[in-house]
Amino acid sequence: MLQRLFFLFVVRPVVLIVLGLNVRHRDRLPSSGPAIVVSNHNSHLDTLVLMTLLPWRLLPNLRPVAAKDYFFSNRLLAWFSTHIMHIIPLDRQVTTREDPLAECGASLDRNQILILFPEGSRGDPEQFGTFKSGIAHLSKRYPTVPVVPVFLHGLGKALPKGEAILVPFFCDVFVGEALRWTGNKNSFMTALEQAIIVLAEEGHRPAWE
Amino acid sequence: MPSHIKPPVLLALGGILGILIVASVIIAVLKRVHPDKNYVELTQRIQSWWVMIGIFAGAILLSPTASILFFAFVSFLALKEYLSLIPTRRADRRVLFWAYAAIPFQYFWVHEHWYGMFIIFIPVYLFLLLPMRMVTIGETKDFLRAAGTLHWGLMTMVFSLSHAAFFLVLDEEKNPVGGGAGLVLYLIFLTQFNDVAQYVWGKLTGRHKIIPKVSPNKTWEGFLGGLATTTMLAMVLAPHLTPLTFAESLGAGLLIALGGFIGDVTISALKRDIGVKDSGSLLPGHGGILDRIDSLTYTAPLLFHFVYYLHY
Which chain B residues are closer than 8 Å to A208 by Cβ? Predict the structure, then answer.
């Protein structure tokens, strides 16, 4: 309930009015779980935009996968991350022998939709980082679950890492065709990166330097 | 009936509603007669018109303040679309924030009927302030491009458009027939009508290209046909909505037709420079907000100063 209110009165007005989205191929987004949505990562807004675009009725079942060290760094943020964002915390440094992807798997078993940023962190604004292969391990375990690549542009301009002031920009969202496990980690990662690069080339995007 | 709405304004809004209904019926009939043809874009276009005119009419009927807020919001959308289209510098993020912050100030001057501030705030104070802010950040590469494009955007999307809103606070007694809302309606309706008229005349009779390098579909026939139709309509409507005399309304019509054409091709030149067909996808069937308000960026200040000089 709190989550719905927060998205209705804060997230949606910010994403749809202050920012504004140009969405290409919206129909390719999953309409039900289980599914994995994968995108490039430049801003905290990325998660909010993807959660706005996915079906409203599925909101409680959307699970952004995010860094435990950052989003659980204090009690307030941890409460917000758990109860409003429904985050699945991920250990960036795996120290124990526990399976780091266990909770992601459990969530897919419950037909939820994972939102994943394989670049690991937000990185430089509007720059593309290399993908980490956790997504491949996950897809290998769930070979039938669709992996939907998304390219986001403009959100790194609106609210880049380290900035507190949001500056309005229209943001472009390009949704790709769903991928599935290819049978091999390297070919899967190449296919995924290639899919996002192709999406990135689809639109007109002036340089930001 | 609210006191700021005069009967002719209500009639004009009713007329626009009538045009929309007729257009929607025509499209429904066309779809029935030619089920094989694709009317998706035309249908979207009309649907977007319904939404735009609905919001605009609602704001006009509600109160002058609501109408001013409406234009402020249009300025915001237009500036946002412009700044998202053009290359901006990473260093200027905070400068852009001040450019956006200018919008509420500019429309506040309008609301307060503070003409002196309204007319110099962006051309003088922001013109001086924003480059200063860029300099304090310290990035000199592409400084001139950044300062120039930002100011052009503010002048076009905020300063120019805010003239449409200033009609709403002008002395009602000097325009007893239509009031502020009458002049706004006169401006907006004729500008949009002129767009459609030039397009239709061009489609029906267009042969000789007028400005092929910028806008290859624009023709002399379309331009002159639109000019004649718009001017005639301007003369018919003037006594019901404006304080303009018969001769003055001839001038107003020519000004709107010519200014509308120039505003249209100016935004076309901008889009061609950047390499996009539509400025965005906010209004299905039209493109972006800039595709819709391009003509208005010229007609609003031109008609305003014409009327202001003659009557206020």
Answer: 87-90
pTM of the shown model: 0.92
pLDDT for res A206: 65
Work out how many CB contacts closer than 8 A connect A with B. 47
Beta carbons of B143 and B95 less than 8 angstroms apart: no
Which of A17, A22, A124, A170 has the highest number of chain B CBs within 10 A, making it the mutation to test binding with B? A170
Nearest to A163 among B93, B275, B280 (CB): B93
Reported as a pLDDT band with limits 50, 70 and 90, residue B202 is: very high
Structure confidence at residue A80 (pLDDT): 92
Per residue in A106-140, pLDDT tens? 999 999 999 999 887 777 766 777 788 888 889 99
Nearest to B84 among A125, A163, A170 (CB): A170
Nearest-by-CA chain B residue for A164:
B94
How do residues B89-102 score in pLDDT, each as one tens digit? 989 999 999 999 99
Span A193-209, pLDDT tens digits: 999 989 988 876 666 77
- Min Cα separation B76/chain A (Å): 9
What are the angstrom distances between the C-alpha of B186 and each of B81, B236, B241, B311?
26, 11, 7, 16
Q: Which residues, in sequence order, are CB contacts of B233 under 8 Å at separation 6+?
A: B190, B193, B253
Of residues B76, B86, B282, nearest to A206 (C-beta): B86
Closest CA of chain B from A184, distance in Å:
39
Whether residues B280 and A170 touch (CB distance < 8 A) is answered with: yes
User: At CB < 8 A and 24+ separation, what contacts does B100-103 make?
Assistant: B100/A167, B100/A168, B100/B76, B102/B126, B102/B154, B102/B158, B103/B72, B103/B75, B103/B76, B103/B79, B103/B158
Quote the CA–CA distance of A135 and A132 in Å, as a whole number.
Answer: 7
Q: Is 80 exceeded by the pLDDT of residue A95?
A: no
Helix (H, G, I), strand (E, B), or coil: what is residue A128?
Answer: coil
**What domains, with CATH codes, occur in chain A?**
2-200 (3.40.1130.10)
Domain locations in chain B as residue ranges: 76-169
What's the CA gap between B109 and B119, in Å, rounded?
Answer: 9
- CB < 8 Å to A157, chain B: 88, 90, 93
Residues 6+ apart with CB under 8 A from B60: B5, B9, B13, B66, B67, B70, B181, B184, B185
The Cα–Cα gap between A21 and B98 comes to: 22
pLDDT at A1: 82
Q: Which pLDDT value is given to residue B268?
A: 94
Which residue from A125, A170, A208 is facing B81, i.e. has the nearest CB? A170
